[in-house]
Amino acid sequence: MIIWADGEVTAIRREWPGAVELTVLRADETATEIRALAYTSLMAAPEIGDRVLLNVAALDRGLGTGGYALVIAALDPAGRLRGQPPQPAGHLVKARYLPLQAMVAGADEQGSPHHELLADADDLAGMPVLVADLHSALTPALVAIAYDRPGTRVVYVMSDQGALPLAFSRSVAALREAGLLAGTVTVGQAFGGDLEAVTVHSGLLAARLALEADLVVVSQGPGNLGTGTRWGFSGVGAGEAVNAAATLGGRPVGSLRISGADARPRHQGLSHHSLTAYGRVALLPADLAVPVLADAPALAGMAGLDAVAALADPVEQALAGLGARHRLVRVPLAGLDVALRSSPVPMSTMGRDLDGDPAYFLAAAAAGRHAAALLRLP
Hints:
alpha/beta, 2 domains, eight-stranded parallel β-sheet, 11 helices, 25% helix
């Protein structure tokens, strides 16, 4: 289950809130320099010359986790433990019973300054809740919201189907710095948000009541897991998030996973992930934001727009079975090309950028546009 390694820190590559990226010289027969990631909420930040213990399983197996070894512990050159991370202020335990379980202060736990606010909370008061399958939908959705409704206070609720540490997401750090994201809540086993919550339900309420969100985006963190089976993928959580938002009186908006570039048949056009999550898992109605892909040739600044337009009919046909439960909202694309091209945060999904898969990013942006439009409605 774990492949251990150790090595010496030879360089500090870069840092962002909650994480530091290192270069480490492995002290084994490979004697190679590798990238390693240390989470500073779990340990004191390593320094050059430190000896670090690493988990290299995902790196050595070539999994799509960003190409990192993960730092377990650091010793200074004298062999002493490299200090302590910030000490826990609460008693919620996440990544429970793993050696690196994290103790955090939950917004909804006793002793929290928000506990009384959340104790009997049960209503999102119609707040739009944009739900996405992949973490990569977050940036285009936020860019579209800011383009259509500047100043919207958006909070990101990160579920635990993907990465558990919020700090693994460089996109979140960049979105915060760009002013597109007002706050974060990590729920379930995920940790590292401005607020911690036990469930998606309490996380949504914390975003609304404690962080005063106008609009919330819910998705898993980086590191989507799929097995090529109907039910074995982490994105089923999107359907569960729709149920949570609707149960609490929110306005769930489903972002569709659409691709014109994915080589896997199950993800071409409208992904089976969207069909399963919204068609089988989501038991309560949502607005599904359907981008008007036929508009694509009139856009500018992106490659392959004729191919995007060619997806319009197949996507509409695939959606036919979802209209009985959900409201299919056709969202025009005009201006979203400008918004996406001017994004201050780089966008990528499955290794493809905006030109590599424009349909994907336009679909996520369309969901952002519709969620923002709901704020103008009574």
